[in-house]
Amino acid sequence: MFPASVVPINVGREKSINIIESVSNTEDQLIGVLSQKSAQTEDPDWSDLYRMGTIARILKVIKLGENNYSVVLQGVERFQIIEEIDRDPFLSARVLSMPDEPNEDLEIEALAQSLKETGRQLITLLPNLPKEATGILDHVTEPGILADLVASNLTVDVAEKQEVVEAVDVGRRIRICLKLLTKQLEMLKVKKEITSSVQEEMGRSQREYFLRQQLKTIREELGEGEDDEDEIDELKNRISESGMSTEAEKMACKQLSRLRHMQSSSAEYTVSRTYLDWLLEIPWKKATEDKLDVEKVQEVLDEDHYDLEKVKRRIIEQLAVLKLNPNKKGPILCLVGPPGVGKTSLGRSIARAIGREFVRISLGGIRDEAEIRGHRRTYVGALPGRVIQGMKKAGTVNPLFMLDELDKLGADFRGDPASALLEVLDPEQNNSFSDHYLEVVYDLSKVMFIGTANTLATVPHALLDRMEVIEIPGYTREEKKRIAFGFTIPKQTAEHGLGEDKLRFKDDGVLRIIDSYTREAGVRNLEREIAAVCRSVAVKVARGQGEGVFEANDDFVTEVLGPVRYMPEMADRCAVPGVATGLAWTPNGGEIIFIEATKMKGAGKMTMTGQLGDVMKESTQTALSYVRANAVRLGLDPDFNEKFDVHIHVPAGSVPKDGPSAGAAMLTALVSLFSDRRVRPDVAMTGEITLRGLVLPVGGIKEKVLSAHRAGIKTIVLPDRNKKDKPDIPEEIQKDLKLVFVHRMEEILDVTLEGETGEARSG
Prior knowledge:
23 strands, Methane Monooxygenase Hydroxylase, Chain G, domain 1, five-stranded antiparallel β-sheet, elongated, alpha/beta, five-stranded parallel β-sheet, 6 domains, Archaeosine Trna-guanine Transglycosylase, Chain: A, domain 4
């Protein structure tokens, strides 16, 4: 607010209402008006207000409603805050009034005349102002009031108007107003020139054309038009040099033609430009040359990974085929095994061995089909799918593409990503892969795809049919030891800044970690525990404790890692009749499970606990029926089922369990319970059973055997028809274990129970 101006305002804040009601009863009805530094502040304090303002007289107060007034104020003169007095019920302060002093300086008169002249020019360019505005300027004789009048009608920021309020000196005030007025006048002149030049060309065109021509004129004034043309020409050259397919080049040229007629500030321009960038940045012809030297590839694979002979052999075979027939389509392998066995890192090693770019995408948890095929460009923020994004990242048409965690794909109302992957992985279709965003065919036939999964059970069958499955079941104790010394220990000691002159691992120390601190199929936890030992030594070295080389032997490892996590428990578990040791397969590798059975007086009721699945419950029912039907032959009381209730429990009750392979262990536990004969603690078994006494084959034999070996089992009972899986079991494991293959259920009891069966005793 400026002196000599009359302004109507609405009053609604509590403090403002208080001051209006308080002053309305006084004789002079004067208040102080200050501007806020920020209009967003709802309840301003002294720090939120400028220090200079205008003393105003209340001319009229109209009550519009409860807590709402319309007040007409007349500016009197400037004031400055001297001392802040109070904040409630309204802001009050001691102030110093600053009236304009009479001044007859010729310079000020000249400035005032210049201000009037500039104001008249501005009024002529503003058709909305009434003609009387020029007369008002002519009738104002006081230079200070003239400056305030002009400033109050300028469309400028509050801060710039406040600068006028704070200009007590009239000459300085007029100069500030003249500067602001001249700036606004120049802006209006430029706008008028632009409007005039555009109207000459517009003719009868639509308003949209008029606005675009205005923008074109502005760009010409700023010198931006030539840059856009240069950019279009550059895109045209990139399209011709990219080597893209005929269909893609046609689409790119169409989008480029649209860009020529768009303004770069429009949303459609950004969409088309982004689409062109994707077409140009994905590879169309650039390829890496495969290193087909079989011996060198074998060396690289052996350097990065121990064992995994089956996978390495398959890669070598593929390279040999590519050497003989370079046009052979890329293989689609699927590495299946527990976590930590080296599936993902193996893919990276294969890429390094054959000289291809490596790209990995994780499919775990993906539920949207658009993640694979991309989003259509009609959606805001649309992007190509992960496959095309991976190709852009690789920069070549023949990378090694790893699809991680195929078994963790999801599906919901947004589509089935697994079905979208069929087009990617099918050698007969992937030479014409269609992404919804690109809308042109892209060739994936030169890509070498490798998938990984922990289990095949959750991989869709149609997807599995496109891939060649290679199983990586896990590592033996000796293999883990060799991996530790050959790969893990050198890697971890280097990462922790420890050389052989500071830390040296001993055989017994590594074996202690393997046996007592990790029980896994892979080597991920083994690496973590070795890293823990390295960190402990790093702390000692950093503190200057100890001299010479730290030896990580059995005692040192136990001291660093704390109490042993895994202890032999077979003897304790099988110390009483009714407990049998079974073997199970999980996505994390093989596991041993204990089947516990107990009896109590009752009427033949059977209870099963431990989160057993339907198949496992049926195996238990089958085992009990077989025992009841053959009770006499097994040396049991024929009426045992009518005298006792049976409770069968499988520990780790919080973990769901299912599958038919626990049938053999269920049978052994029941016969052990009712014959009062203990199960040998060093024996484990697996196999599906039938009512007629046959033992049927099961899967996951290698994983189960490895888990039994880790747990200290010496004898394993397997179905006779699983002899075909014996070559998959490492020779060193077969030397430590006794594998017994059985055809009928009675043979299981002869091996697993202590003592003799009833039939044998009667004979």
